[in-house]
Design goal:
The protein is of the alpha/beta class and 416 residues long. It starts with 13 loop residues before the first strand and ends with a strand. β8, α9 and β9 form a beta-alpha-beta unit. The structure holds pyridoxal-5'-phosphate. Keywords: Lyase, Pyridoxal phosphate.
């Protein structure tokens, strides 16, 4: 109930999904049925793309996190998807937030979240944004250079700071972050000394093994490196470090159990007997990816021999920028099949190698190539599941197709 009353959700229409006699047939059929009913109700000639966010999926992920990593407090990475409904749901559940900029801090604070639930986790910040964090009372940030310490001294001398380490990164991560961020092992002691001179309180360390990590051993290696940094601080006679931020990189699939086990095991080995240690994380993809489904309309078609070509009203410059920037693979399902319980996968239907283009005039704007689809018509709908992470958040307005104008409908799957 607290989630349904959360800012970002309260006052918006929420469809209840799943089996219950009082629900409409479409709602009983879940997200796809709901999309079908939204499409049916759209006014003639207005087939704009839209998202459906399943609040029940976010709550289930929260429970999964809490049972697998009870010692690790999640600070949701707002950059992954700043839709107010996911921020509101996670705020109501008790999450903290990882913000990278003034606008992200403002978005979270406007939901009534107190500033002590925010980590300003951008190791290189503009002075104006640091000054804003000081005024707003956001008193925990990250750094990985001497220049950043000088800016903190100048603009927010009272902040606590986490030294971002260059993690033993997962080489197979979808988006490695190591080339850009993190102190090298030999830089750790000099940076701690520089912070001491500037009277910046370094309360712990952070790292990020890379977004979309696939090798959970990376967490083990990074936690071992964190231990070495804690020991370096102790050797320098600094106050005992008390915060370990294990960053993001988590996915909601079966691999999460392995990542959670690796972290739990590494904490036991490298930080035994430290009950006062605060362990936090900055998951983005874990909470957002599977909770959002995108519905797009087919606005054009061309038949080239055996190949079917379709144009849809969202693309590489919009939600599907994830194909370029997040190295994502997207999947499209015709709504007519996905919402048909008798044949949800279009099984048995003749399919064609199909190309799906986005709406802009750039040939790069190609969403899928040689994708098997049954023959579709202009005005049919293509649905893309698992579209919550690094999608709309990084889309543009190129060619006048506004990503930020794509609306989000709310639904809640739950017990029947
Ligand atoms: N924290 C920081 C500092 C990041 O840069 C990112 C992603 O770029 C995240 C957290 C979220 O990572 P993920 O979505 O892989 O959990």
């Amino acid at each position: 109930q607290a989630v349904m009353n959360a800012p970002g959700i309260k006052g918006r229409k929420v469809a209840s999904l799943g089996k219950k006699s009082s629900r409409s047939k479409e709602e009983e059929e879940g997200v796809m049925g709901l999309i079908q009913s939204i499409v049916k109700k759209q006014p003639e000639g207005q087939q704009d793309p839209f998202y459906v966010m399943d609040i029940g999926a976010v709550v289930a992920l929260w429970e999964k996190w809490a049972s697998s990593l009870p010692r690790v407090r999640p600070f949701y990475a707002v950059k992954c998807n700043p839709e107010p409904a996911i921020l509101g749901a996670l705020a109501a559940l008790g999450a903290g937030f990882d913000c990278a900029s003034r606008a992200e801090m403002e978005a979270v604070l406007s939901l009534g979240v107190s500033p002590d639930r925010i980590v300003y986790a951008n190791p290189c910040k503009a002075e104006a944004h640091i000054r804003y964090s000081a005024r707003a009372g956001v008193d925990l940030t990250t750094f990985d250079s001497g220049e950043e310490i000088k800016k903190l001294r100048k603009c927010h001398p009272g902040t606590a700071a986490l030294l971002r380490l260059k993690a033993v990164e997962d080489g197979g991560a979808r988006c490695p972050l190591g080339p850009k961020y993190g102190a090298l092992p030999e830089e750790v002691a000099p940076l701690l000394e520089a912070a001491r001179e500037a009277r910046i309180d370094v309360v712990g360390v952070s790292f990020h093994v890379g977004s979309g990590a696939s090798d959970v051993a990376a967490y083990r290696g990074a936690i071992a490196a964190a231990r070495r940094a804690f020991d370096a601080a102790a050797r320098l006679g600094l106050p005992k470090m008390r915060v370990l931020n294990v960053g993001g990189g988590f996915t909601a699939g079966p691999q999460f159990a392995a990542a959670a086990a690796a972290i739990t095991d590494a904490l036991r080995s490298h930080f035994p007997d430290e009950p006062g240690l605060v362990v936090m994380a900055e998951p983005g993809r874990f909470f957002a990816e599977t909770a959002f489904t995108l519905a797009t309309n087919i606005i054009g078609k061309r038949v080239r021999g055996e190949v079917m070509e379709y144009w849809i009203n969202d693309g590489i410059y919009g939600s599907m920028n994830c194909i370029l920037y997040d190295h994502a693979t997207v999947t499209a399902l015709p709504l007519a099949c996905a919402s048909n319980p008798g044949n949800p996968t279009c099984a048995g239907m003749k399919t064609h190698g199909s190309t799906v283009f986005g709406p802009t005039c750039d040939a790069l704007d190609t969403v899928l190539s040689d994708h098997q689809l049954p023959e579709l018509q202009v005005d049919d709908w293509l649905v893309f599941p698992n579209m919550g992470a690094y999608t709309a958040a990084a889309g543009s307005n190129f060619n006048g197709f506004s990503t930020s104008a794509i609306g989000t409908h709310l639904a809640c799957s739950g017990p029947p």
